[in-house]
Amino acid sequence: MRAGQAGGQPFAVSVETSDLDEARELCGEHLYPRSIRLLDRSARISGRFAFLHMGGLTLADVRYGAAIAGDCGELGSYHVNLPVAGRFVAAQGSRPITGDPGLAGVYRPVGKNVLLHCSADCHLLALKVNTAVLEDHLAALLDAPVRGRLRLAGHMDVRENPGRGHARLMRLIADEIDNPTGLIYQPIVAGRLEEAVLLSLLHAVDHQYRDLLHRPGPRCAYRRVARGVDAIQADPQQPYTMSGLARIANVSVPSLRREFLRQVGVPPMTYLRDVRLARAHAELRAADPGARSAVHIARRWGFVHHRGFVRRYRTRYGTDPSRTRRRTYRDGG
């Protein structure tokens, strides 16, 4: 078992077990209380479970290694089951919900859930989304209250966009669960990943507010955009997200994105990345002999993929980060 640091930071737990009761307890603790039974009484599970808790999301990588069934009552959360392999057949109230590698099953917070069959080769990525988190994010996008629960459709086609993009994001995060130095554990990145999951889910699944997501909003004054600019300039290491910057500016997320592009010339997150790049450049030029390497400096400023950082740095400053550091050493500052 491996557990990361809690206390608001992303953390994960990974377990392998052949004990059905332990598997039931794990899934109850990290997802939902449930019953589990083997469809073949002579079989034995070979379970592999990894649970990542990240803000208002839990992403689970689940493999039982045996055909199972069971139920878990009402979820109380929005939920997506994406099979990487195998298939499942379930029901939520009167709604049939099935899943295979081309079709994810989508659940609402209410309605009794019954798992009728999950194949022995089924490898699931399960996404649990806090109800208030998803609804508040949608309200911020719409700049309007969300009344009642979202009536999410029971399926998401992951063979075509936007469902394919959401599924790709789920796989990207799941692939990093057992990598303690991965991007999902970097606070400066984790918030944006969580926001990307919420946004892609709202666009990928049909619901009663979906068409409104594409509705243009009114323009806002420059002083509101300036609030976002000032916040970024004052502390660019904060794990800003689009919704967080929109709250600072007191505008909707679409208005912030549109007005930043119109008034500043680039989208908000591009502006944030450019400011961080400039701060990383300044730190490299300071060139304290005891300072961290260029890789560590890049990660500290939110550039997780070093090749991308070097490419952007070279485009903007005409040299590599490591050369900036060495040249400063050689020139004596």
3D structure, described in words:
This protein is of the alpha+beta class and 333 residues long. It is built from 11 helices and 12 strands. The strands form 2 sheets. The protein has a 7-stranded antiparallel beta sheet with strand order 1-3-4-11-6-9-12, with helices on both faces. A hairpin with a 2-residue loop joins β7 (88-92) and β8. The model is unreliable at 1-7 (pLDDT under 50).
Q: What is the gist of this entry?
A:
This protein has helices at 20-30, 131-142, 163-175, 187-204, 222-234, 242-249, 253-263, 268-286, 294-300, 306-317, 321-331, and strands spanning 11-17, 35-38, 47-54, 57-63, 68-73, 78-85, 88-92, 95-99, 103-107, 113-118, 123-129, 155-157.
Write the SSE topology.
Elements: E1 11-17, H1 20-30, E2 35-38, E3 47-54, E4 57-63, E5 68-73, E6 78-85, E7 88-92, E8 95-99, E9 103-107, E10 113-118, E11 123-129, H2 131-142, E12 155-157, H3 163-175, H4 187-204, H5 222-234, H6 242-249, H7 253-263, H8 268-286, H9 294-300, H10 306-317, H11 321-331
Helix pairs in contact: 3-4, 5-6, 5-8, 6-7, 8-9, 8-11
CATH topology of the largest domain: Jelly Rolls
Per CATH, the superfamily of the largest domain is Jelly Rolls
End-to-end separation: 47 Å
Category from helices, strands and their pairing: alpha+beta
The biggest sheet amounts to: 7 strands, antiparallel
Give the low-confidence spans: 1-7
**DSSP helix count?**
11
